[in-house]
Specification:
This protein has about 400 residues and is an alpha/beta fold. The protein has 14 helices and 17 strands. Helix 2 packs parallel to helix 6, helix 3 crosses helix 4 and helix 7 crosses helix 8.
Length: about 400
């Protein structure tokens, strides 16, 4: 079945809000054997109708997000109703639910809010547990092949509604087993062309293989879509060629694997960051369950903070420099002493554009991992990137060194 996504909202095209819906929908639909054939983002107003009418000529399943609120720019209901020649009516159950929601919060509901209770003729209301605007599912006798879903735009409202109410409908529409699986391999430390040179031809020679790459600074994802038997062969090719460069599989985040591995081992972690400015800690704390293993995170940007917060001997910094293997090791070891954790990971480097020297140019990075009772390991790296990209690749390097020293192969 052809699936199209229409994301509405001028704010998406102005760049004030990042559109994450396509990635979310694709992940949710693939296990059902459904693939998105087209996605379009349109501003508020008449372009919504045009995009919808175009999608009606191609797709059996149409997902429309946004434009269901109470304000004058929320026009999705009206424009879809006009395009289909359907009337809008005020649903008393939706009105009651809205009144209860406003009353619980001690808020006054105004007449404008009642626009959200308008439902297209023949539409099925999809209740919104996290907002006032319900979704609407349309499958009318006039269009028996088409299934249209009008959904709220904010992710905190959209995602629970989609998983709780839309997915069950889609499962009924597509009951077959998925004929192809998808595996994603996260590779660190190699460029996209290098990765393709090592595995590309061999992978494409496998039967029914759909191969893709996604490159970011310092990392590459290899995406394989194929029958299960082919995926087994593909994995052997990738692991034989790339080995320890594969940081994670099945699309999992490196930090997710680390949090789960530490929990399984019953061990804890502390971070000590300079050049990454807290990004390593940020990535770890994005993972549910991080509180069980991450004891503390120190951001010690200045030399004084390194000494005061981590106990780094000022003589080490004066002798070797704040950006040095000795300081990186002292930071990781100091974080262990202060926190009582089992593992400590530290970063120190020169993000640029200034601050470099002939001996230590911009892009110089030292990452250290210390283990209680197990010594300290330091790696020296160099990444010539802008500041933001440098921080990202530096955080990758720190987490990946921890992964390898923990003995957690991909």
């Amino acid at each position: 079945m052809n699936v199209e996504v229409i994301n509405t909202g001028s704010e998406l095209l102005l760049g004030t809000i990042v559109n994450t819906h396509l990635n979310y929908f694709a992940d949710q639909l693939f296990p059902l054997g459904l693939r998105i054939g087209r996605q379009v983002t349109v501003p508020d107003g008449e372009p919504i109708r045009q995009a919808f009418e175009e999608a009606m000529g191609r797709a059996e399943i149409i997902l429309i997000t946004g434009g269901l609120g109470p304000t004058t720019d929320d026009l999705t209901r009206d424009l879809v109703a006009e395009a289909l020649g359907l009337e809008l009516h005020r649903d008393p159950e939706v009105v009651r639910a809205m009144e209860e929601r406003f009353a619980k919060r001690g808020l006054q509901m105004v007449e404008r809010n009642l626009r959200q209770a308008e439902v297209l003729e023949g539409g099925v209301v999809l209740p919104n547990a996290f907002g006032t605007a319900p979704g609407i599912y349309l499958h009318t006798p006039a269009e028996p092949r088409r299934h249209v879903f009008l959904l709220p735009g904010p992710p905190r409202e959209l995602y629970p509604m989609f998983e709780g109410q839309v997915l069950p409908i889609l499962r009924r529409l597509s009951p077959r087993k998925v004929e192809h699986g998808c595996r994603t391999y996260h590779v660190l430390g190699l460029g996209e062309s290098n990765v393709e040179a090592l595995v590309g031809e061999k992978l494409l020679a496998l039967p029914e293989m759909e191969l893709g790459y996604c490159s970011r600074p310092g990392e590459v994802d290899i995406r394989c879509i194929a029958p299960d038997a082919t995926l087994i062969q593909a994995e052997k090719i990738i692991m034989d060629a790339l080995g320890d460069k594969v940081a994670s599989r099945n699309g999992r985040l490196l930090e997710q694997d680390l949090i789960e591995a530490l929990a399984e081992m019953g061990e804890t972690l502390v971070t000590a960051e300079s050049c990454t400015g807290g990004l390593v800690t940020h990535r770890l704390t994005n993972i549910p369950g991080a509180s069980a293993v991450l004891l503390a995170g120190y951001i010690t940007y200045s030399n004084e903070a390194k000494s005061m917060d981590l106990g780094v001997n000022p003589f080490v910094i004066e002798t070797h420099g704040a950006v040095s293997p000795e300081t990186a090791a002292a930071m990781a070891e100091g974080a262990l002493r202060r926190s009582g954790a089992d593992w400590g990971v530290a970063t120190t480097g020169i993000a640029g554009p200034g601050g470099g020297s002939e001996e230590k140019p911009v892009g110089t990075l030292y990452v250290a991992v210390a283990r209680r009772g197990g010594g300290t390991h330091v790696e020296a790296l160099r990444f010539q990137r802008d500041r933001e990209a440098f921080k990202q690749v530096a955080s990758n390097a720190a987490l990946d060194l921890l992964r390898r020293l923990m003995g957690r192969g991909s």
